[in-house]
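Re: that backbone. Tokens:
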């Protein structure tokens, strides 16, 4: 029993690990992104590979998995002009190789990873990716590469960089050392500084199709949970996942599908006014440490609003005042979500405020 808290803390310390599921660096296969993989492989063979790549797309579709796959390939092939690179059909590296084992263990000397770290209290992750993490990368690139090999840095995710960290990263991208490669993961690239985006070659990943999504879920170790679903639950899973492995795993874990359905039903009822069930839900979601359910609520509230706007357009509802109210509520939700994490607002009150705002806008 004593080992559990340590294991949970270890996983918490990795902001890019989802619950107890395997870390992206441990994934052997990549599903659904053959075109992006082929584009990078072609760049390797060209002899003019760009030094910074912005790997973008919605959260949980395999961006970090691709970043680690690229890192393994480059670290395993010091000479990208070698015949084995010219003959490669993809970026796969033998999982039993020294490079693959080192990357999976987070111990390859040619790779540095920048993510959010634990706050000083050791209980929560920092709100942002700080300049200290970026400086770690700058120091890494200042060192001489082993045996003339490559040095690779992964930033996961750039959306979490604070202003100082983003500026420090930009400076490094402007003056890249030889044989250096930056792999920058972003869920919402439009929020990044334009100057940072302009320094990168962009690699866009799309949500996974049904077959690729199921294959990725099985690779993550959730195959039994997938097989246990009835046909209607499979349909619900597809709707909940929206092509994201992370969302699929969240829905499969425990009563994830039921929790999502409960939140959507309450959002649908918000226009009817105050509801005691709002308070029951808010009490549960606002419990300390329940970050995932709070994130799910914010996510579903945003999707609910987007759905109402789409419905209005499909039915010819062009009432500008109503559409403006819906847009205003979406902006409010986004702002509250960010401020709650930054300033530790009362989550229950935030949830109730969102229900009230949605009810007023939908009326």
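Recovered sequence:
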């Amino acid at each position: 029993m004593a080992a559990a808290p340590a294991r949970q803390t270890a996983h918490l310390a990795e902001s890019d690990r989802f619950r107890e599921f395997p870390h992206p660096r441990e994934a052997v296969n990549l599903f659904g992104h053959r075109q992006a993989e082929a584009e990078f492989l072609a760049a390797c063979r060209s002899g003019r590979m760009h030094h910074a790549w912005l790997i973008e797309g919605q959260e949980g579709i395999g961006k970090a998995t691709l970043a680690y796959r690229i890192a393994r390939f480059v670290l395993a092939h010091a000479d990208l002009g070698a015949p084995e690179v010219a003959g490669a059909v993809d970026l796969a590296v033998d999982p039993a190789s020294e490079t693959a084992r080192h990357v999976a263990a987070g111990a390859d000397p040619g790779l540095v990873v920048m993510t959010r770290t634990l706050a000083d209290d050791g209980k929560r992750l920092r709100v942002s990716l700080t300049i200290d993490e970026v400086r770690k990368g700058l120091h890494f690139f200042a060192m001489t590469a082993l045996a003339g090999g490559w040095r690779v840095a992964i930033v996961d995710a750039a959306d979490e960089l604070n202003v100082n960290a983003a500026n420090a990263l930009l400076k490094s991208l402007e003056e890249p050392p030889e044989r250096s490669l930056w792999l920058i993961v972003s869920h919402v690239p439009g929020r990044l500084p334009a100057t940072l985006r302009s320094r990168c070659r962009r690699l866009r990943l799309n949500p996974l199709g049904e077959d690729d999504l199921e294959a990725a879920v099985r690779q993550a170790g959730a195959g039994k949970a997938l097989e246990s679903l009835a046909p209607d639950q499979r349909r619900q899973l597809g709707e909940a996942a929206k092509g994201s492995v992370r969302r699929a795993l969240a829905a499969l874990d425990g009563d994830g599908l039921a929790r999502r359905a409960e939140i959507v039903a309450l959002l649908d009822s918000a226009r009817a006014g105050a509801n005691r069930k709002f308070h029951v839900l808010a009490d549960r979601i606002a419990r300390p440490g329940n970050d995932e359910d709070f994130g799910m609520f914010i996510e579903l509230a945003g999707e609910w609003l987007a759905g109402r706007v789409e419905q209005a357009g499909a039915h010819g509802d062009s009432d500008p005042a109503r559409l403006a109210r819906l847009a205003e509520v979406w902006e409010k939700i986004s702002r509250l979500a960010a401020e709650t994490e930054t300033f530790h607002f009362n989550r229950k009150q935030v949830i109730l405020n969102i229900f009230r705002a949605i009810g007023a806008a939908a009326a």
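Residues 1-12 have pLDDT under 50 and may be disordered. The two ends are 51 Å apart (CA to CA).
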